[in-house]
Amino acid sequence: MPISAPEKVTETSTHSDLPAIKVVRTNLEGVYAVPAFPAGFNFHRATRRQLQEQGIFLTPPTANSDPRHIAAWKSAFDREWRPENRIIPESKPHPGVTHLLRLTQQKAESGNATSYNWSGGVVQDGGGWTSASAEWYVPTVSKGAEAAGTDGGWNSSSWVGLGGWIGSSEILQAGVAQNVDSNGNASYWPWYEWIVPDYQNVAAQFPYVYMTEIPNMTVNAGDQVSVAVSYGTRTVDTGSGTVTQQYGQVTFGNQTNGQNFSIILTPPTGAISDGSSIDWVMERYTLGDNTLASMPDYFVIDFQNCGGCRPNPVTYANPSLGFLVDMLDNSGNVISSIGDSSTDVSISYA
User: Fold this and answer.
1) 223: closest CA among 346, 300, 137, 159?
2) Model confidence at 71, in pLDDT bands (50, 70, 90)?
3) CA 121, 125, 128, 130 torsion-angle sign
4) By the 8 A CB rule, do 9 and 32 touch?
5) pLDDT tens digit string along 320-343?
6) Whole-prediction pTM value?
7) Does residue 59 belong to any structural domain of this protein?
8) Alpha-carbon distance 48 to 59, whole Å?
9) How far apart are CA 104 and CA 130, in angstroms?
């Protein structure tokens, strides 16, 4: 149910030593926006508590951290995220449109696993991941080699996510849609989604189980974006009492034009937030009529500074620990392939 006007709500961590933060209700119930950072806020010198006061619950690196963790943090926060570029995102769900990781029994010549709807890298390594992140340049797309899909076009998404690997049907994910219509016109827009096993039956209450567009944020081909998704636990002070629950968080920045947002999501019914895997993916997503989109030509996409964390003890992961997956077209030929990955995930249109 949409909410008519933004409203500030106090969010308090369940840990007594962590500060409360302010969030703002958005146009979609269950979606809360974290306000802008103060002008001149220094992400590198801030204490953990000061970061949390600004809604940053990602694990910051220390001098002894994995060098890849340090590099990813510097890349995301070396620039100044100016208050005037912070947006309260508008959410526009696309009913029926989903991003699920499906696999085939077939192996590619490269030895990689295969799928009919996605290619990319996945780290499982015991699961329990609480954050995943990456940055990339949005690829330019054009009509693909296959015929147009049932919507008359070619549709793809580049994204980072938590969950969805073998044995999991829950994914918290965010990224960029790269689409081409029947006339060859390309469009690009940011989105997020928190799909759960019984998503069709809970969509009326939690419409963001489907692909949810952010129409008031601008993304163009060639823009550099940084995206992080994470899980946490919160206590919400409603004014008439407190409610403790898990939450998901999506943080999205366009490093090219400076626009950025961070949102906190109420878990859809059935969410367990187990973080069974970390995912960096290029996908042709499922359309509203439950058919796979046709894949546009995107040439190449490089997910850079890929990483993810889990607590107790703090562990940092990168693609070198994971599985590689190539995408097949409708005839069973490789249409999107991934190369060897270390800190980056490089995927090419075949």
Assistant:
1) 137
2) confident
3) negative
4) yes
5) 888 999 999 989 999 999 987 677
6) 0.91
7) no
8) 9
9) 27
**Quick one: tokens of 172?**
């918290």
- State which H helix or E strand residue 205 sits in: none
Q: What is the DSSP letter of 81?
A: -
CATH code of 338's domain: 2.60.120.700
Query: Residue 77, SS3?
Result: helix
pLDDT for res 13: 36
**Alpha-carbon distance 68 to 308, whole Å?**
10
Q: Is 220 part of any domain?
A: yes
Supply the range of the domain harboring residue 185: 92-349
Q: Is residue 310 part of a domain?
A: yes
pLDDT in tens, 180-225: 999 999 999 999 999 999 999 999 999 999 999 999 999 999 999 9
Helices within 57-165 (DSSP H only):
67-77
Residues 248 and 153: their CA atoms lie apart, in Å, by: 32
Total domain count for the chain?
A: 1
Nearest to 290 by CA among 151, 176, 115: 151
What are the residue ranges of helices labelled H in 56-188? 67-77
205 domain residue, yes or no = yes
The DSSP output letter for 292 is B
Strand (E) positions, the chain? 8-13, 20-25, 31-33, 92-93, 113-115, 118-123, 131-137, 154-162, 171-180, 186-195, 212-213, 224-237, 242-254, 260-265, 278-283, 300-310, 315-317, 323-328, 334-338, 345-349
Residue with tokens 């090219």: 256
